[in-house]
Amino acid sequence: MNVDQETPLKSKDERIGVGFLGAGPVTQAIHLPSLARLTDLFKVSHIMDVNPAVADSVAGRVGARSSSSIDDLLADDNVEVVAICSPHQFHAEQVIAACRAGKKAVLCEKPFAVSAEEATNICKVSAETGVPVIVGAMHTFDPGWLAAEKMWGDLPETAHYIRSSIVLPPNARFEDFATEVIARPSAMPTPDYSDPSVIKARFEGMVLGLAIHDLPLVRRFVPDFDDLQVLHAAIAKPFGYSIVLRAGGRTIELLASINKSWKPDWTFEAYGPESALKVTFTPSYVQAGSAIAEFSTAGRKVVAGPLTYNGYEGEWRRIAGIIAGTDTAPAARTLIEDLSFALKIANAAGAAAIADMSPAVQPEEAHA
């Protein structure tokens, strides 16, 4: 899809009805503001949350019906697209239920499953029902990134080093810029990093919750990852990671730090022998235009962006195009392999970090 192409607009009586499973900060501070800019295409019809008071309050902001029942939302004929913004462990079951309910499309926040088996089952049901599934990896829909794809030439084949660096304040800072969040989740206690099981779970959470934003981008440069090996993995306190790995003949560095002292910076870089790409994204929750892509070769630099909308809005534009028949859904194989890549990194990074611990707290000793 051309990054500058406008999705055909619909009149108000033809707008696509959207229902949300989960009314937390992602729904409130990301998707509702995005849809507020696309009111010629979409209307919010139904807000479901297990907390009826939250569902009712959020629905009241957009004039939607509220409920605390998934079955009620799926049975609502005014809901044509289901947006799944619930905790990760419920995604697979809910995506499959939405497909079987015969909706026009499903948008699921990442990760859309927590195992390769779940992902494969989702894609099988999607194919059987004809209901497309879109995973909310917003950077893949960002027009700045789409512009980068058009100008990078053979860099995906020649790149030898890929780097994703994410420096952000706690989510609440940007959530508050976007909206007044109702019923924000409580802060988690400080983890016990002397416990190997905590470290393993922490890497799973960080890779599937944060690194996964950029891992589909990394995969454009690493289509084959059977030889994936994590060379280094460490936790950056209070929340973050440093992971260095090799896969497909490339060195990949994944860095992240979420704290209260640094200026936000979110960049993706790829370097080859004769060219380089740098894409600078806006922070999560910020609705401030697209990424800026810079592609450099000897003596020449091409810059694309910022364009008028970002990846969050891009997701919804893509859905509208799929429903209108002017665009296509991401390939099932790509979704499955992107998730498999993330899971493999999470497991290997956790194992590498545990292996670097003091012998006194190695798993065998810790459970003796």
Automatic annotation (TrEMBL):
The keyword Oxidoreductase applies. Gene3D superfamilies: NAD(P)-binding Rossmann-like Domain. The keyword Ribosomal protein does not apply. Keywords: Oxidoreductase. Pfam families: GFO_IDH_MocA. GO terms for molecular function: nucleotide binding; oxidoreductase activity. Residues 17-136 form the Gfo/Idh/MocA-like oxidoreductase N-terminal domain. InterPro entries: Gfo/Idh/MocA-like_OxRdtase_N, Gfo/Idh/MocA_oxidrdct_glycsds, NAD(P)-bd_dom_sf. This is Oxidoreductase.
